[in-house]
Amino acid sequence: MAGPAIISTVPVSGAVGVPINTTISIIFDQEVDTYRLKNGGIFLEGPDESKSIGPGMLGLEPPETDEDKFLSSPGLKGIQSCSFSFYRVDGSGASVDYYDYGDTAQAGQLYRTKVVLTPETSLKSLTEYSVYIVGDEDITDEYDFGLTTRSVFDPIKGPNLGTGDVLFYGGYTGSIRQRFFIEITNAGAPGTATYEWWTSVDSLHRTGTSSLGYRLLQDGLNIKFLEGQVYEVGDSFSVWCDVPLYQEGSYKFSFVTSSNSPTVLPTPSGLITGITGSTLVSGSTFEVSSTSPADRSLFNSITLVTITVTFSASLNAGTITDSTVTVEGSAVDGSRTGTPAYTDSITKTLSVGTTTLTITLDPDQVFENNLIRVTLSSSVADTTGNTLGTDYSFFYVTDLNPFYAGIRHVRLRLGSLGNYYTDDTIAFAIWDASREADAFAPYISIITDTVAYERARTQFVVCFAALLLISGNTGASGDSVRKRLGDFDVSRSSPSGKTSADDLKDCISYYQAIMEGGGELSPLHKPVNVVKGEYDIDSPAFGRLWEVPDYPIANARSTTSGSLRWQKTFLARTRGNLRSRWERE
């Protein structure tokens, strides 16, 4: 028995004109270990969407707010976010019930595995994408890596079986083929029922308590009990686990997207070897092709009151009514208090062209800081009777005010963490942080340095917005991050265990003080001269510390030459010995 091999791919390698809303599928010549496949065994590569190379400070004088002047990754590649679906198919490519228990030989040869990758967002037009299936580049060495044959098979139900069932899952890491057995010893639902388990090569019985989550038994094998089922004493199950065989070498295929979003691939699916008769299911014959403004677009002027929806076929004007087309406004922060102002149900007029719907809004009902949502009913149809089938909804955002930082400012501050957030999410955080900055704004007469004040305000907003974004992200520890761009490798480890949130809180406090001081660096941020010695009046001043002269927060209390210097580092000379004077008041 050999390791897994690729039978067919959709799109085929080298395909062009692939729809930007396509899904990608691969069929293997046997069943494969889906656990390894979805945990780094397969990925889609396309244009790098990252706007930064990692957390850290970038010195810009003056700070820029122009989006186009910030770092991006033109021409570089990045991993595209995808969801995975796995199917068990027969020799003709037709799906079968994943747990039909038909593989009585428990060898993974009866069926084949099909994996479908669905990009989380539409692909870019006229762009090359590549799919990698990671295998073992050298199966002769001692290091095993990549995709393997299926190693954990279907449960085998014992003769004594009540109403319960179990699932086995994982990537088996054992060195020999063996069978695992479990038997219910205490009846009940998951969480109550208990069991014993043992193997065909080790008769030692071990105990466990059933769980709705997967629990590890041994060598990568996990067991899960099912919700709503009741297990009876004597219920027994078993599963074969086999030593995995690794795919020999990695596999790559590439394709190029189309300039628009056709619903059918321009060329039929091809096959590498093996399966014949593969078919391609086309998309809906009637759908929304595009909208203007685009879905989730930002910073649309409140003077823009015309919305255009383009369809893939001629519209049936009779299906376009006030009830089948709705436009709703809301405040971007979800507030229902009327601040920011919004109109719940916006008055509109509708105009139907051949394949376009034009929606004109009442200009007196659109405001800044609004989220405008358009919903088309599933009953909207074309002239041949095809309907949308499901409600179609999209939204856009009007100008955000105040808005004191750029989206890429925040991405740059967050580094690789910033890649997890969409532009509209970051924009909402910046808007919220900008309102917070306004709350700390001094009276205009107090602002003594406008340039310094506005720079501090921008940095305050960047850090505050970043903190809002990562506050719910338990993985945002900031302990270490790394990004590789070709041969350029950038990494950062956080000192003393400080988290990203700690750094951002320090940043907020620092720039808030400058803001509240109207851009003036005193008293908190002015340098003071510190002199060592108790009464050494004639000693020249040396050292410059950023400190408040009136409080011994760090290591300076006074700038008066003849007074005591209360310092953490201060030592007074007494009878030839040095002793600390820090304890004196």
Description:
With about 575 residues, this protein is α+β, with helices and mostly antiparallel strands. The chain has four domains: about 5-150 and about 245-255, Immunoglobulin-like (Sandwich), CATH 2.60.40; about 155-240, no CATH class; about 290-400, Immunoglobulin-like, CATH 2.60.40.1220; about 405-515, no CATH class. It is built from five helices and 32 strands. It has helices at about 35-40, 405-415, 425-440, 450-470, 500-515, and strands spanning about 5-10, 15-20, 25-30, 40-45, 75-80, 80-90, 95, 110-120, 130-135, 155, 165-170, 180-185, 195-200, 205-210, 215-220, 220-225, 235-240, 250-255, 290, 295-300, 305-310, 325-330, 350, 355-360, 370-375, 390-400, 480-485, 490-495, 525-530, 540-545, 570-575, 575-580. The strands form nine sheets. Strands 1-3-8-6-7 form a five-stranded antiparallel β-sheet, with no helix packed on it. Helix 3 (about 425-440) packs across helix 4. It is globular and about 85 Å long. The chain starts with 5 loop residues before the first strand and ends in a 5-residue tail after the last strand.
